[in-house]
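Quiz preparation item.
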């Protein structure tokens, strides 16, 4: 375009605006797919000025906004809604559960609402998928959510896991045996120096992972995502491979002072001798803390 891309973008959006209804909303979804250095970023941000009054724009992205949009935000022409604001609160979760289960004509137990909220952690799509599972039973509201529905696993497999190459998938699956993980611990368990890079990337796109302790980042999967990954782990790897992975992870956890999680992994690995050794070594400390219960 002889007059430059910016002029082309403005005139194009002027023409588009003339064809739109007087009041409408334009939605730019999956915006993270557009490279941050793409000229289209600036063209779209500049073009907002040419939209007629009454037209709103919603940009949906898994990543933070790029520089051209930051300027628009600084000029107070755009509001930023972050991931924390999009998470459902317990009250919102409760309202949605009661609304959707009302046709079953059963009293919705608070314990069920609490369990659902704990499992979805504010994830709206996960809430709707779990509710669909419950409503399929029709006759009654269960006392417990039970096993995660196939629809949740299908969603995670289709929309999350399949986007990664085989190496990244292996990292995600192997790391799922850890409830919390530092980068160093994840690299040792997965035997991959890319683990930290993978987790940072997932966290930057808010992809079912939480980061804790900013000084030395520790990561934790979303409960439903971890449950899905663990199921995939035992499906893709042999029992012997999974048991060995648990044993190795238990060693690393013990070295890091996380004995209770280490013992739990040894129990799952059915390594009774190693488990007994750790319990015997840890017993004096636990007795000294007054922790005598065995159940």
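Solution:
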């Amino acid at each position: 375009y002889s007059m430059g891309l910016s002029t082309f973008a403005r005139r194009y959006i002027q023409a588009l605006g003339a064809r739109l209804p007087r009041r409408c909303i334009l939605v730019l979804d999956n915006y993270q797919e557009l490279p941050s250095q793409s000229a289209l970023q600036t063209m779209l941000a500049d073009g907002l000025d040419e939209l007629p009054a009454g037209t709103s724009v919603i940009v949906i992205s898994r990543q933070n906004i790029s520089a051209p949009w930051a300027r628009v935000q600084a000029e107070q022409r755009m509001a930023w809604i972050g991931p924390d604001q999009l998470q459902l609160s317990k009250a919102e979760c409760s309202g949605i559960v009661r609304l959707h289960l009302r046709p079953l004509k059963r009293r919705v137990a608070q314990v069920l609402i609490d369990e659902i909220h704990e499992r979805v952690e504010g994830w709206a799509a996960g809430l709707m998928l779990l509710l669909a599972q419950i409503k399929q039973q029709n006759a009654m509201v269960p006392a417990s959510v039970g096993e995660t529905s196939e629809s949740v696993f299908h969603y995670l497999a289709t929309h999350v896991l399949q986007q990664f190459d085989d190496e990244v998938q292996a990292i995600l699956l192997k790391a799922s045996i850890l409830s919390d993980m530092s980068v160093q611990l994840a690299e040792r368990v997965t035997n991959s120096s890319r683990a930290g890079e993978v987790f940072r990337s997932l966290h930057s796109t808010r992809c079912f992972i939480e980061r804790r302790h900013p000084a030395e980042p520790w990561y934790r999967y979303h409960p439903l995502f971890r449950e899905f990954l663990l199921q995939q782990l035992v499906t893709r790897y042999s029992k012997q491979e999974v048991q060995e992975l648990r044993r190795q992870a238990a060693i690393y956890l013990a070295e890091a002072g996380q004995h209770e999680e280490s013992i739990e992994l040894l129990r799952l690995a059915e390594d009774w001798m190693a488990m007994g050794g750790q319990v015997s070594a840890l017993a004096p400390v636990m007795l000294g803390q007054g922790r005598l219960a065995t159940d």
